[in-house]
């Protein structure tokens, strides 16, 4: 009897050691199952990954692993700017940062996905070639027509666990996605807020209501820049009524003031054939000069699929094999008579 009680206490103590202090959030170790019906998340530097894309949007399962090509300690996450994202935030496949998804023509990928992940209707494609990027490769966000979908594989996104309030209940599940949309990370956190709301709401309007639960004071912080000694100093700071100064406007002020360090090296725009376009240069937060220049890269939306019909009983013949290089981005076909 005593030994069984000691065993139970030992199990409880081991479980408590794996919880984030004061949160009830279970930390999972390397090799342990995650997602599915398992509440909690992988330890720092681990990611809940599945071997293949989940066929079920809900309750995706994975294992806590050290993702290949990912080192979040080397990544500077992009700052949160006033106005938020035009679409829902994205999480890169390494799980390092939550950021506004990159749009068509913007740089993506890089070491540990430091340059970000594309919006849901785009792929992060190699600058030159017919493939998706894999860290540490740098790519460009592109729209890809349906007949190219099998050419560009999407990276496996992490499996996330979380909760949302749905029809008056806390609905908790796991989801394999680079666009997780959870309001709460645990059932306890969700249920606490829900119970406080329901307790306050059930009182009759004429009856004395209990005081609303106190919320911790929120300190508004936002990203902004200012000119200091011929430099743009950019950082998170307390919000104020003024519209924050961002890098582009700050760098223009440096140029107008004649600061010698405000000019960036001249990089000529490369020529680009009709089947390609010029990507946007990438500048790191707080900097004036781009670290990734504008590049000529294929626009696969100009690529027509293989013809399914040729007049006069002709057959489609491949005359140019596309290789994803500007000028030869696409396969080109012509209709020829049978036997030619």
From TrEMBL:
Keyword Disulfide bond in annotation: yes
Residues annotated as domain IGFBP N-terminal: 66-144
GO CC annotations on file: extracellular region
Keyword terms, alphabetized: Disulfide bond, Membrane, Transmembrane, Transmembrane helix
Transmembrane intervals: 6-28
Top-level division of the source organism's lineage: Eukaryota
Keyword Oxidoreductase: no
Protein name: IGFBP N-terminal domain-containing protein
Organism of provenance: Pangasianodon hypophthalmus (Striped catfish)
């Amino acid at each position: 009897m005593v030994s069984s009680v000691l065993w139970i206490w030992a199990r409880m103590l081991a479980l408590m050691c794996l919880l984030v202090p004061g949160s009830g959030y279970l930390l999972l170790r390397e090799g342990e199952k995650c997602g599915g019906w398992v509440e909690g998340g992988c330890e720092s530097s681990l990611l809940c990954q599945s071997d293949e894309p989940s066929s079920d949007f809900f309750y995706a399962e994975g294992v806590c692993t050290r993702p290949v090509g990912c080192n979040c300690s080397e990544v500077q996450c992009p700052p949160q700017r006033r106005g938020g994202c035009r679409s829902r935030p994205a999480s890169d496949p390494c799980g390092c940062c939550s950021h506004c998804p990159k749009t068509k023509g913007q740089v993506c990928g890089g070491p540990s996905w430091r340059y970000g992940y594309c919006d849901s209707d785009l792929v992060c494609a190699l600058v030159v070639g017919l493939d998706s990027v894999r860290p540490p490769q740098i790519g460009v966000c592109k729209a890809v027509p349906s007949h190219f979908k099998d050419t560009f594989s999407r990276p496996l996104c992490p499996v996330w666990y979380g909760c949302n309030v749905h029809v008056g209940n806390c609905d908790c599940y796991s989801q394999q996605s680079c666009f997780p949309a959870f309001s709460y990370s645990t059932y306890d956190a969700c249920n606490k807020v829900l119970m406080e709301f329901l307790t306050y709401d059930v009182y009759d309007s004429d009856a004395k209501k209990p005081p609303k639960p106190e919320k911790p004071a929120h300190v508004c912080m936002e990203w902004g820049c200012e000119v200091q000694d011929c430099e743009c100093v950019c950082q998170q700071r307390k919000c104020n009524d003024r519209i924050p100064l961002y890098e582009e406007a700050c760098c223009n002020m440096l140029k107008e003031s004649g600061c010698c360090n405000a000019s960036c090296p001249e990089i000529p725009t490369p020529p680009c054939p009709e089947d390609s376009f010029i990507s946007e240069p990438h500048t790191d937060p707080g900097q004036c000069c781009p670290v990734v220049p504008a590049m000529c890269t294929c626009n696969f939306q100009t690529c027509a699929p293989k013809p399914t019909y040729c007049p006069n009983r002709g057959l489609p013949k491949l005359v140019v094999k596309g290789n994803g290089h500007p000028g030869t981005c696409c396969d080109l076909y012509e209709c020829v008579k049978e036997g030619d």
